[in-house]
Amino acid sequence: MLSKKHCNFFVNNGKAKSIDIENLIKKVKKTVNEKAGVNLELEIKIIGE
Predict the structure, then answer these.
(1) Can you tell me the distance from the alpha carbon of 13 to that of 32, in angstroms, rounded to the nearest whole number?
(2) Which residues make beta-bridge pairs with 10?
(3) Per-residue pLDDT of the chain (49 residues; tens, 9 = 90+)
């Protein structure tokens, strides 16, 4: 989920896997782009499969 304190933080409430977090990031980026016309850039680098 997105943090209630800061919308730039993702919170794992227990059982999310890395792919779940990646999918959530993609969904947020797409939604923000569609609604606000802003292209968000990751401040982290995702490595691995």
Answers:
(1) 23
(2) 2
(3) 989 998 888 899 999 999 999 999 999 999 999 999 999 998 888 887 6
Do residues 2 and 11 touch, judged by C-beta distance below 8 A?
A: yes
CB atoms within 10 A of CB 25: 15
What are the CA-CA distances from residue 49 to residues 2, 8, 23, 46 (Å)? 23, 23, 13, 9
Task: Yes or no: say if 10 and 21 are a contact pair by the CB < 8 Å rule.
Answer: yes
Spatial distance between the Cα atoms of 39 and 32, rounded to a whole number of angstroms: 7
